[in-house]
Amino acid sequence: MYKPLTRFTDFISWALKQYREIMEYTTRNFPFRIVDTQRSTRTGETLFTIQFVGKSTVFKMSADQLAEDDDLIQGFAPRDVKKIIKASLIKPKLTVVQGGAQQTPYKIIAKNFERKQAKPSYVIEQVLENQTITKTVHLDEMTQSKEILLKFSKQDIFEIAYTAGANSILHAQDDIARKEHPSQ
Fold first, then answer.
1. What is the count of structural domains for the chain?
2. 108-152 per-position pLDDT tens digit
3. Of 89, 110, 139, which closes a domain?
4. Which contacts qualify for 167-171: CB closer than 8 Å, 24 or more apart?
5. What burial letters (b/e) apply to 70-84, b meaning 16+ CB within 10 Å?
6. Residue 65 and residue 101 share a domain
7. What is the pTM of this model?
């Protein structure tokens, strides 16, 4: 009558023992873990909150500092190391303007649609050291160069990519309609 209960308690004991062994292994081999990630809007730098595994002690370090310290980075699990390296490599392209504020070199001011050419275009502003240049650029020109796209803010890149995707869908629908009804 008590054999199923004994088997169950034996299984629970075994599972707890396995869990403890895994936790001990993790604590021994990877004593640190990332518990929070913050990105500074002012500098674009990523700041990690790091916890000692099994303790409530935390400290903060930037991704660049962590990536440079080989001894410290070995104390993280592979997933956390990947986060650290990625954050230290990916930096926004920022330029310093008067007053100490930082911004991306290009900024979208307006979005236009030219009916004659059936193409969207953007009015962009380029900030140089002592002047601001405003020019109109077609969507095709902007999407051809990855280097140009990386000089925009993330929000502007999203806007450009969304418009490019919607535009390609419209062109595909027009092509399908022309193939189905060639006489029109």
1. 2
2. 888 888 777 778 888 898 877 778 889 888 888 888 877 788 888
3. 89
4. 167/119, 167/120, 167/139
5. eebeebbeeebbebb
6. no
7. 0.43
